[in-house]
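Predict structure. Chain length: 282.
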Amino acid sequence: MTWWQSIILGIVEGVTEYLPVSSTGHLTITEKLMGMRIDDPGVTAYTAIIQIGAILAAILYFREDIIRIATAFLKGLGNKDARDADYNMGWAVVVGTVITAGVALLGESLITGALRSMWVVATGLIVWSFFMFAADRYSAKLPQEQKRGLETITWKDGAILGLVQCLSLVPGVSRSGATITGGLFSGLDRVAATKLSFYLGIPALVAAGVYQAVTEGGAVAATVGWGVTLIGTVVSFFVAYASIAWLLKYVASNSFTAFVIYRIVVGLAIFGMLFGGVITAN
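Prediction complete.
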């Protein structure tokens, strides 16, 4: 991998990590168009590792929220009277993260093997779009007074969205797309569902990136290179920060319909390239 390829992949990661369009799917598409073997262990690890840059951007952006929630959670563990909405949010993130991590470890060989296929990416993009559209319509029709904010979150919400987040292990589904969809179906408003998606994503993606760096470090060094991996990670950090700010502003007054249409178009385009022999599945 060259430095300019890593810059492009870092931009793709930064733009798509938090948009409900599947960052893994877009990275896989881009890597494939660059002629890379998407089932190569080094490339797979690189894809996970550069996500750390985007996650660091989220940590910086939400640093005040993270400190407040972590403080309330730790305080609430030893003092029942101090347990508030932030304490409950802390439990939601912990429970959701444990569930997602457990499923990811059990299905690691499938995730990095059979599911690393362009057929899976295209299918995931299109099929999950219908769930996103249904959730968006459900939320739009729900009376405003019945919609929930972040102050209503409990560990049960974390458990449900942790399970839903596991679906994003399938390339093309999208982690944010899955959790936002689950949040909307749970009655959360768009901003609350999006923020909860960020909170759940931070520990899950950091764990995935660190795990890949430790277990597949040799493969990265042999087939990709740590220098270009660092470049992609840094680029993804700066691009992701801007993407986060834009998304939160966008969902405050817009539906997810544009993302649904985009996902379907991209999915159909991939199918077209596969059937036309422009690209291969792996």
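Summary: The two ends are 17 Å apart (CA to CA).
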